[in-house]
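User: Structure tokens for both sequences below?

Assistant:
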Amino acid sequence: MKYYKYFTCSIAATMLITATDPIYSEANITPNQKSELDVKSVNGNTVEFNNGEKAVQFNNKIITKNKDNKVEFEVYKIDDNNVKVINKKTGETETISKDSEDVVSPQKSEDSINVQQTSTSNSNNINYIQTKSSGYKFNYQRKNSTNLRTNRVSLAASILASFAGVAVSVMVGVATYYVSTKAKQAFWIEKVYSKPRGKHRRSVKTNYVYYKYHNYTKHVKTISKVREYVG
């Protein structure tokens, strides 16, 4: 079987599972909301804020820089439940964990659903969403929460993006909301869907639905990620 070079491989039991990087990640943010996010520009893997701060995403970490272009924090994903934050000024290291709880799946889990498909504003580099039927079926959902003890949107976005495994640029809207409301915690439900794409391929879509309150009410934003698996 031929694999594209951008696949990353792992062996699970006796089955070869090959997963691409996310095909796309998106947020329900329209182009005219850019000013509300305090974002000056999004250029490749770098988000620059109006106050001069930056968040730069690499393969294994996200760094934040101050207005003098000096690195302030490095953020690493340890595993699905833990993120490591290094304060470059003080040398202190903190592990930030998330609490997770599986949610009983609804009976209509076998029904086809509508999912968000992305369209892009080429002038602002910010994705906006159109919804259409796609044939994905519901798999499972999980409640999550984590502490957010920062007043920096760049750092909050880096932490949340590391947990979700998405581009830091699409997490800015969520981080802006939590920081602006002085939230001490972030709450989200992870909803996973899948559909076959041929004999040996499947597509998995994950929606990260963020909320203001601990009982998962008052919707903030939804961010989506799609990955392709071969095996």
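Moving on to the next sequence.
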Amino acid sequence: MPGDQQDQLRKTIRALIHQRTGHPVQTHSINGTVYVECPAIYERRAEQGMREAADAIGAVLKGEPPPLLDQDWAISWTAWDVT
């Protein structure tokens, strides 16, 4: 994302997420990538994410494909950090 467009993108992201969820969020721009932070949404989805991960691992261990998830948004609420 070009730097001159990031401020407007971040503002739009914050407004849309707040409109859809009712929770305020913070955005951060690091090396051209925009990250969104919302502890309220994380807390609400943390347990569900753990259940989904356990179901997927259980299926793979049985030789089955992982279950497909119902998603109403094309957004991932988590980020993985590999260092």
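User: Anything stand out in the second?

Assistant: Strands lie at 26-30, 33-37.
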